[in-house]
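In the laboratory, one determines a bound structure by crystallizing the protein with its ligand and collecting diffraction data. In a computational setting the workflow is compressed into a single prediction: the sequence and the ligand go in, and a structural description comes out. We illustrate the idea with magnesium ion.
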Amino acid sequence: TKWVYTFGDGTAEGSAQDRNLLGGKGANLAEMSNLGLPVPPGMTISTEVCSWFYKNDRAYPDELSEQVNSALAHVGKLTGRTFGDAERPLLLSVRSGARASMPGMMDTVLNLGLNDQSVQAMARDAGDERFAYDSYRRFIQMYADVVMGLDHEVFEDILEDEKARFGHELDTDLSAEEWKTVIARYKQTIEEELEQPFPQDPVEQLWGAISAVFSSWMTARAVTYRQLHDIPSDWGTAVNVQAMVFGNLGDTSATGVAFTRNPSTGANELYGEFLVNAQGEDVVAGIRTPQSLTEQARLEAGSDRPSLEKLMPDAFEEFRAICDRLEKHYCDMQDLEFTVERGKLWMLQTRAGKRTAKAALKIAVELADDGVITTQEAIRRIDPASLDQLLHPTIDPRAVRDVIGSGLPASPGAATGEIVFTSEEAVAKAEAGHKVILVRVETSPEDIHGMHAAEGILTTRGGMTSHAAVVARGMGTPCVSGAGSLRVDMRTETLLTVSGPLKKGDVITVDGSTGQVLKGTVAMLQPELSGDFGRIMEWADTARRMKVRTNAETPADARAARSFGAEGIGLCRTEHMFFEGDRIVAMREMILADTEDGRRSALAKLLPMQRSDFTELFEIMKGTPVTIRLLDPPLHEFLPKSDEEIDEVAAAMGVPADQLRERTEALHEFNPMLGHRGCRLAISYPEIAEMQARAIFEAAIQAGEDTGEHVVPEIMVPLVSLREELRFVKGRIDAVAGEVMQEAGQKIDYLVGTMIELPRAAIRAHRIAEEAEFFSFGTNDLTQTTFGISRDDAAAFLGTYQKKGIIEQDPFISLDLDGVGELIAIASNKGREARPEIKLGICGEHGGDPLSIHFCEKIGLDYVSCSPFRVPIARLAAAQAAL
Ligand code: ADP
Ligand code: MG
Ligand code: MG
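The predicted complex, in structure-token form:
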């Protein structure tokens, strides 16, 4: 079997195609070598050796050492040196390299092969003693750290100590003699701490390093990382053994890293840093401040230290040409490592560069414009979830942050405003033109209007799926939840923080992208929706099949969603409309009435308000489909809860408090989620559904007249499990439609459909489809009812489930494809069987989750509907799913 693959001198035994066998680093070293680029020769010990190693109790295949030796001989021939030789020693770097780059793997060991003898030869050979001993101390330090497991801090302490003693500031100031002293102390420390000497035999050093790489595949950190990123453990890592080139060979030598484009802005400019007279790790380790690669970057940084362009023009020009070539070759922005040894350039690594969401867009668009990649490929290159970062104002990365507390990054974006502690105050202050941050222990449905009025939300309790978090994400309002180090004292209206109390009206900033809470105002960057973002969205819109709608009930949400490209409303929840202003009064009056007549007269007060709500929504949505769900929650939710509130409300309504209390008690349910709600309400009190239907139809006529658009409302009946339920409610809706058409003397087109959110409905979908003209999968409730898990109580154990590996993902965030997904697939098929033209959509939180969207495409849904701020994510994910 072939276990070892060589590269160097313009050829290689592998190529970029061999990522699985050679790991990312090895495959790209081979590729660069094949391209004729200056790569120090070396070998890659394949990932198959790693698998063999673990299958055979950490042993190696018999042929391995022979193959390594002959590869070493080959490298020796190319370099004119011999590994282990005392006169012209070949020194090596030993580097790990898995298929996907992976933190937790062994760090690189440089200068391997040096010992007390060969260091002298190196010094003679290079004519530079300082260089040789600098390399030797680096080697001892790295090897002892990564192979022998001695913490590098002990070495840093020794070095600091000696530098102080010799009166030096920089490592580069130490003379050869001084390095010798340091080296002696290093070796002595190793003997003392590990009770064994530092190995002098190069062969022992090499196999020690190779074993350390393979062993690092199973360290706790690497194992955890693989679990988190779904990387199978049998992939294994490769080991790259490569001839050293020296960036620490005096002032004509250097080492650096570069990106072919700016990784934070995406600008098409060479971007990077280097250090003169240094080796690999120094640049990232921050021992010295690195210098800019290009003159332009140097000028922009206002630095007086020369750029590589100025300092080593020949090496720089060669490097710049290689960057261009590699970017074209890989059709993507590259992240590169290089070293200059006495004026000669060497390439040490290339890979696709990590980038911000903003840079990813810019780079994809420019590469597509230049014809390097197709627009489809450009669409594929963008991570839909990353778009979220771009849709909200963010804190300027250059701003100073005065952090006074932190919690969970519950809803992205940053917002500044005055502290308010109640929703009423939030509304009042916002109406008076102030920007406010609503600060609560936690929020509840009564806070909706306050949450809408606020720029940002801060809670001191609750997780990522708490009420505040879910609602804030839906509204696109920045939110930090569960900031446990802060305390709200409602009595004194203060927010207690470690750096002192804050009063109502004090200004704070919440950063929902990091979870930080900051004092005062902070400089912000505004989102940019045109430009590159707009181009990618345009391409995505051409590529996708599914429509993207939004879940919205307020005009502000609907407008935001339109600006993000929503093609209709998939879910308008009408209950939120009943909390606003004095509507809640009429609503409570309706609930308190004991006769149908009493209810009808209270409903008559709500009718014009509902009608104007819907008219406005239809007008904003300009003839695109709007799905309106009839009242869904149990009536109990609209009534006051505490005795205090009951007294207050009773007084305001002019009814005896006891009557209100009795009604509240009568409506109490043990499990409201499974109680008197959804279509069950419409069956008990058809007049409520009738009022809503009338408001919808009258609004459709009105909006049609105002805008000239043909408005086709879609009325959705919630929580249906039986065909008979839907037939009953639909009968009432149709009757109202008939009345309104008669009154208006015109025809109204409309659809009546249902939400599929109960398992029985999914299984009996063919029967329900006899009545329903559309299905909308309400996957929040469908997930609750399929699992029998209440979302509000799930936090207590779902986290544990994930930690213990019982489930991989929170089914409320990413659709449970095997269970809930299967029900959706069944219902879709049965629905189409009974009614081939049936419209199918999804309207749960999952409608904005890329993985769930892929599933929706696969089973052929007509549209997904999600919260306004997820609309662009859904547009892109739907395009990717269709490609
Ligand atoms: P990482 O995956 O952490 O980037 P690498 O294996 O790329 O680790 O090595 C880290 C650094 O070591 C590189 O930036 C490079 O400067 C240096 N290095 C690696 N191989 C060599 C070599 N053959 N000669 C000189 N320096 C090297
Ligand atoms: Mg590297
Ligand atoms: Mg529901």
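Residues 557 and 868 are 6 Å apart (CA to CA). Keep in mind that any predicted model is a hypothesis to be tested, not a measurement.
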